[in-house]
Every structure is written in C-alpha cells, then in structure tokens.
Amino acid sequence: MNIRETIDGVLRQRQKKAPLLEKIHQGFSELNLRLRNMQQMASQNVPEDFAELTVKLVTGLQNVEAEMNQLSNSVANVAKRFSRQTINIGVAGTARQGKSTLLQKISNLTDKEIPTSSDLPCTGTKSRIYHSELHPHAQIEFYTKQEFLTEIIYPYFDRLSFRRPFSLEEFAKPLPEFLAPEGTQEINTLYAVYGELTRIHSAFPTFSDLLSKPPLEVTLEEVRNYVTQRDLEGKSLTTYLAVKAANIYNKFPNHDVTGLCLVDLPGLEAAQGHEKKLVASLEQEVDAVILIKFPKANGDQWTIDDYKVINLINNAVTEIDLANWLFIVLNESNLGENQNIVQLLRENPPRTYNTKPMILKANCYDAQEVDEQVFSKVLKHLEQNLGNIDQQHIKILAQKMDSILMTLKQMLEHARSSFTLPEGDMTEFLDLFEEFMNELREGLQELVSEQREMTSKEGKLKDGFKLKVEEVCNFAKEKPSILPDNKELEKQCKRKAGWLDVLPPHLNQLRAYLTRYLAENLDAYLKSTVDEVLAKALNRMFPASLNNLVILDSNHEQDPRSTIQALQKLLDKNKQPNLYSAFEYIVRFNFSYHSLFHYRVRSVMTLLDSFEGDAIFQLTAGATRDNIPQKSEEIATGLNKFYQDTIFQVSKKLGEDMQADPASAIFALVEEIQDRLAQTKGIDKEWRGFLYPLRGRVWPEKFKVLADKESFCQDWRTMIDDTLKSAQQVQSDFRSVQ
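^ that's the sequence the OP posted. Answer follows.
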C-alpha cells in the first residue's frame, strides 16, 4: 500500500468515526450537567445528618468533573481532526530556522508564496499547502470580527492583565498605559508583548475593513501580499493581520500525496502571543509535526525554548507518543559549518519523559536532500503507523473513560448506600403495616368478587363486549373504499384477459382490510377495558397510604400502567422478587384481538380467501368474453355480498362463541393479582421490607420529619442512578467507536 492509498483508507475510517465521537462529546455535556446539578443539590436544604456526606461528595465530584472535562476536550479535538478531509503535517519553528525554506522544497513553491528572510520574521499568518493536481491557486480566509477580537486581541490583553475590550470599536480607542508589575521576572517579555499590541492597534485602521470578508481566491503570485509581514524592500505590511489562513493548492514535485496538507504553524516568538493558536492547531489540526532547528556553527544545545516547544507538542495530545508524531529536523548550513554540532545534537537527543521523537538532518536549501532525508521518511512513518496511531488514540481515551467511570461509580454507589435512613422504633410502623395489609387483602377480595359477578352469564362485561362487536361490525358494513366498482372491474378484466387474475387480489385485500379494521377497533376497546380494571385495582386494592408513593413518583396519573411502573421502580428486584414480578406481570398483561380472537375468527373468512372455498367459481360462473360488462356488475355486487356475509359470520363468531372470553381473561387477571400481591408465600415480608424504608412517605402524618429526609434521600438516589446511567452510556459509545 502506498502513501496515497494509506491516506484514503485513514480518511475513510475517520469519516465513519467522526459522528460517533461527536455523540460521545454530547454525552459528556449531558454528564457534566448532571454532575453540576448534584453539586448544586448539595448546597440546598441538606439535613444535618447528611451534611458531611454531601461535602465529601462535592469534593469528589469536582475532581471527577475536572478529569472528565479534560477528556471531553480531547474527544472534541479528535472529532474535529477526524472530520477533516485531509491528513495534515504541521511545520513549526522560530524565525530564521529554515521553516519556510523547508516548506518551499517540499511543495515546489517559491518566495512569492512562502516568503523567507535572513533577519526578522517574515511570514505573519498560517498557511495550509495542499497537494493538488488542479491549477495552482490560493484561497485567503479572513478573520471574522469576533474571531479577531477573541483569538488575536484577547490573548494580548490577558497577558498584560488589561480589561478586555467588549468590541472592536472599543479596541480602536487609545490603549491603556502599561507598567510592568514590580518583582516580575518577565518584564522584558511583557514590554515586548505590549509593543506588539501597540503595533497591531496602530495598524488596525489599515486592515479592519477586511474582517468578516468572504474567502478570496487569488493567484499564487498574489499570495505574498496576504501572508508576509514585509514587502521586498523591507517595508512593514499589515494586511496579513486580517488573514486567518492562506490555503495554497499546488502539485508537490516528488510524491502523489492527494489528501495531504502541510500546515505552516504559527511562529513561536514569545512577544507575538501565538502559543494558544499553536496549541489549538496541535490539538485539532495536525496529525504530525516537523520541528525545525538550525544549530549555530559555533556551538549549540537543546535550549529551554526547545523544551518549551516539545512540551507544548507533547501536552497537546498526551495520548500519542512523541515518537509517533514529532519529527525534529536539524537544518545543516549550505557550507556545512554546523555539521559537527548537528551530529552532536543527534547523538544527544533532548531528554523527554515520553518516547523519543525521530531526529532527522538535512540541508533545507537542498530540495533533493529535503525529500530524501525528511519528507520521504515522514511519509514512510505515517504510511506504516497512522492507522494504528488513530486506533491507539481512541483506545487510550476509552481507557481514561473507564478509569473515570470506575472512580465515579465507586464514589456514587457508596454515597447512594449512605442516602438511607437508620432504623427506628418498629412498634408504630408494625401497627400501620398490619392495617395496610388488611386493607390490601380486603380490597383485593372485594375486587375479585365484583369481577366474578361481572363474568357471570348476565354480567356487564359480557354484554359490553357483545355490544362492541355489533357496533364495530355495523360500521365495517359500510362499503369499503378498496371495493372496486363495475367499471374498474371491466377495465381490469380486459387488461388481464380474463377474470381469474383479477379477483384473487380483491378478495385478499378485502380480507386484510376487515382484519385490520377489527383489530384496530377491538384492540382499543379491550385496552380500555383492562385499563379500567387496573384503575379500579389501584383505587381499591391499594390502600390510600400507598398512593402517596404514586403521587410523588408518577407523572401519568391517568395511566394505570405508568402508575404501576412508578411503584415498581421503587422496588429492589433482589430483595422483593415476588412483588417485582407481580408488578411486571400486571404491566405486561396483553389482551388483544390478534392474540386471542383472530386465529379463531379466521375460519369464517373463507369467502374472502382466494385459496379456500369456491368464491372465485361462484363469482365467475357463466362469464364469457361477450358478457364482460354485464358480468362486471354481477361481480361487483358479488364481492360486496361476500364481504357483508363475512362480517355477519365474524359478528356471530365473536358475539356468541367468544362472548365470555374477555370477561374470563380479566377475571383471571384480577385473581392472579390477588394471588401474587396477597397470597404468595413470604409476600408479607417483602411488603414490609419495601415499605419500612419508605415509611416517611407512605405515612407522612405519622413520620413528618422522616418523610422530608426520605424525600431528600430519594432525590439523591434518583440523581445518582441517572448520572451513572449517563456515564455508562458514554462508556458504551466509546466501545462502539473502537
């Protein structure tokens, strides 16, 4: 596989993963909100018994939040990198190290597009150089007004401890005077920063009209006017200050690297305040970095400034080893005066705490040497490792998430177990519990007796189902829209050259229509019947005291199933297994036309079945090619008659043979509820274990203070459960992206 194929493959994989990473980042936002909400809860109306617990919890949450925010930012940066359409190699270095010269030799550009200088810094803005087989050109991106304010101006004001201007109009006003703080060790640097800010401020009127302009396409010969700090005569220029980036498209001379981009990273001069922009580029924009150093012939070493840059690169993406994305190029002079120093520095590489970066050497003025000793080696490394680097990067982020979740889970599960109330005097509770169970059993027995009566021969439930069947069937008798008229049948007969291919679809469609109509209308009736019974169960079989829990935990007071689910959520599946399964049975109870009736009703629908009976023979008897119009009228009438006859048979089957089925099923449901909630072995113990911790909410008039504390604890347990669920979802999303 060559470098172009590698680039294509890596970009395809990244495009697949980018949306998943965005989802993870959104998950972090939700999780962060939950952590903030918990910290806010810890400062509001905390009972004295839980004050120490919440203080410790907040401290732990703040530590987790800090780690999580750092990981979230890393994920956001990777998502931005993976969303790009190119693989980017950044080139960095201070002035006069050979950065622009190296870029020229790799890209086949000249001083017109990438200015070089032997004295002061020359390029003043970021350039991106793309390999392109199309005609050479450049696109100039300008800062928006807000970007210029926040990305360029604010860093200077922050560095000098000035109050930030709220607008460019305010920035255009005279700058405040600067006096370096006493005792500072950076006095010279700070005055240099102020000098640079003063220069930008003075030049602002000359370029301000370019801010927020749309991108501008220019020829390569015009690029210099937008990226350089000085013209050919050395006169200062200011247009570059409004330029966010110059995107240059040119064919590289020695390699087909379609999909590759060289990024001329911001300069490293301290006074120019580019450090934040450099870090942002390292985090989000580049996949590898070439750092240029031009050793002095009279002696040189790895300086503090070198280590500062290496640290910036290492800290920008800590998940990737320096050896996999940093390439230090030692620039040899044309005459070779510094060769000995270059060799000495190679033999004594910088002492990094991570794996060692690759150190290369080349004369950056020699295009062949740059290609063979630098660019080809960097490309070879990326070709062999880039895919694995991406995988390793995601894997390490996922491992960090696992670690955060483990810490969070241990902390929150410990806290959750502590948000409970200690056991107190059992006497009053046991009296109330006995009363509760008596009411429960009496209510259930009354409900069973009522349903038994309704299930009897003259019961209302039987009659109600019969009346509903008659009502539904009467409405179904209205001529359905899918029934064809004689004109349509005549056309179809002529089109199909006979009746045998015309009638089967119509019979089957009428049967399907009738089945769906019956199911939709009877299902609604059956569900409302079951819901009515469940509502009675809630109102009568559950004592009033239990409703206190339902009111607090359910937002669906009119939906009995939702109310029962709200109660079920309060149960401990391990400690109250029978109660939990009883509520599960009630919620899942299904009573529908298709499950109980349709398979039996189907036997009386043979008139509408093209494979059963002799419907087609009856409809087409006596048909000839000469009586198609007359036969069309007869068949239209016959189809409607078959449909009406089928409805009659269905009504009879449902109304007579199955009249008792709904009543019997509902009676069985009520008896099962009674058995599961009141008569199962050990059920009293489960009810007692369920109600005791909640006694403050079940009987608030008896346990007022306890009720408030229990409500407090329940709110915390719910918040903890929701937070852990969000964290586990983020962890699951990480696994899906690996």
